[in-house]
């Protein structure tokens, strides 16, 4: 086995696509201690700066003291604590859906939901830039699976028109595309879903907590209720600063997931203390709305300045502000040049993004200040001129 693996690993190295982990020696925040160095980071998904918030820490510690640490068993055996239940009720309320169901991770929520809803003889249509977990879910489901051009409603409609009459149809998109930062046109997707009798699922991993008046995410941003967007998935490890994920929708949807979603059924429940920390994060969406408005201000500030400096920004108005570089090696060289200047931004390259579209995935957080953004821009200008 090792010889086979060595060959495959060598091939990866030759392609310059070998990935390495960094060892973090501090909590999440704008400044990280990484491999013994202090770095100003623009690459985490802790968009609201909640991952190290004292209220989340206190909620976790207090709950662990009462409920212990381990989840103990799956939700269907004896792992479903009152804190999980409370969190599900809070998630249903904030998203304006009948019910919500917790999953241990977003990857599992996507895999579980798509495979529970779709099977042989059904049809899945996914945006070609969807997150890997949605693409994997489509393949695993056994349904007929096609990918439409990114955010291209005409292409999607052509494909819908050609579908045979039999089988259920599911359209699946990232609400905010994780590597591009742009949003899916959810109202247009909802209209097409209705016209062609398809179900619509949106993965709001990068919108939940951040977008919308109350932080309820992309569905709130576009004012789409359960009728128009029946399958809403969100994650809790990004904007909410905690861990886990959920799916929200009708009573029937949630009951079906409890019965049929294998990544829900066959896994240990997340620790109750994690659920408690997430409830604290939901409270902070109400108590500290400045986090969302400050983040929006930083996004505008970054874009205005980056455009004035002629940096290759992409068409995004969210906290994900990638700079399109194109060549993989050039993207990696720019990321290292920034790191030499004390700034951490990861280069994203194939297979995560299409060949020729390597980029620096800059992410902004409510924990950043305008001065932090000035530092980033100055380092970028210097690194690009070098
Ligand atoms: C769009 C999207 N969906 C799902 C996930 C998976 O969520 P989790 O990290 O909770 O597994 C991610 C990233 O991690 C993501 O970017």
From TrEMBL:
Its cofactor is pyridoxal 5'-phosphate. It comes from Zhongshania antarctica. GO terms for biological process: biotin biosynthetic process. Catalyzes the decarboxylative condensation of pimeloyl-[acyl-carrier protein] and L-alanine to produce 8-amino-7-oxononanoate (AON), [acyl-carrier protein], and carbon dioxide. The modification N6-(pyridoxal phosphate)lysine is found at residue 238. The keyword Zinc does not apply. Substrate binds at residues 19, 131, 352. This is 8-amino-7-oxononanoate synthase. InterPro entries: Aminotrans_II_pyridoxalP_BS, Aminotransferase_I/II_large, AON_synthase_class-II, AONS_Archaea/Proteobacteria, AONS_Proteobacteria, PyrdxlP-dep_Trfase, PyrdxlP-dep_Trfase_major, PyrdxlP-dep_Trfase_small.
């Amino acid at each position: 086995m090792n010889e086979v693996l060595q060959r495959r690993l060598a091939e990866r190295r030759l392609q310059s696509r070998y990935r390495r982990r960094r060892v973090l020696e501090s909590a999440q925040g704008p400044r990280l201690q990484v491999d013994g160095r202090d770095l100003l980071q623009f690459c985490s998904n802790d968009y609201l700066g909640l991952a190290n918030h004292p209220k989340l820490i206190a909620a976790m510690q207090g709950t662990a003291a009462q409920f212990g640490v381990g989840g103990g068993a799956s939700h269907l055996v004896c792992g479903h604590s009152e804190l999980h239940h409370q969190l599900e009720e809070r998630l249903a309320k904030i998203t304006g859906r009948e019910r919500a169901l917790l999953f241990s991770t977003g990857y599992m929520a996507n895999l579980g939901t798509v495979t529970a809803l779709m099977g042989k003889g059904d049809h899945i249509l996914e945006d070609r830039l969807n997150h890997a977990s949605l693409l994997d879910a489509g393949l695993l489901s056994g349904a007929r699976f096609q990918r439409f051009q990114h955010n291209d409603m005409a292409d999607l409609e052509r494909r819908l028109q050609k579908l045979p009459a039999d089988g259920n149809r599911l359209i699946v998109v990232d609400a905010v595309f994780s590597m591009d930062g742009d949003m899916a046109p959810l109202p247009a997707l909802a209209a097409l879903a209705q016209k062609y009798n398809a179900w619509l699922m949106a993965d709001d991993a990068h919108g939940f907590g951040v977008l919308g008046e109350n932080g309820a995410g992309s569905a709130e941003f576009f004012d789409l209720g359960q009728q128009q967007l029946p399958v809403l998935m969100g994650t809790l490890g990004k904007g909410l600063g905690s861990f886990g994920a959920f799916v929200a929708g009708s009573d029937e949807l949630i009951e079906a997931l409890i019965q049929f979603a294998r990544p829900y059924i066959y896994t240990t429940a997340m620790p109750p203390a994690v659920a408690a920390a997430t409830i604290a994060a939901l409270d902070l969406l109400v108590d500290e709305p400045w986090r969302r408005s400050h983040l929006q201000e930083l996004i505008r500030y970054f874009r205005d300045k980056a455009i004035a400096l002629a940096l290759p920004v992409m068409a995004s108005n969210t906290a994900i502000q990638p700079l399109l570089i194109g060549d993989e090696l050039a993207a990696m060289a720019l990321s290292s040049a920034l790191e030499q200047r004390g700034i951490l931004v990861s280069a994203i390259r194939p297979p995560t993004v299409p060949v020729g579209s390597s980029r620096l995935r800059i992410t902004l957080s409510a924990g950043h200040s305008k001065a932090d953004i000035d530092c980033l821009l100055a380092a970028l200008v210097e690194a690009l001129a070098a």
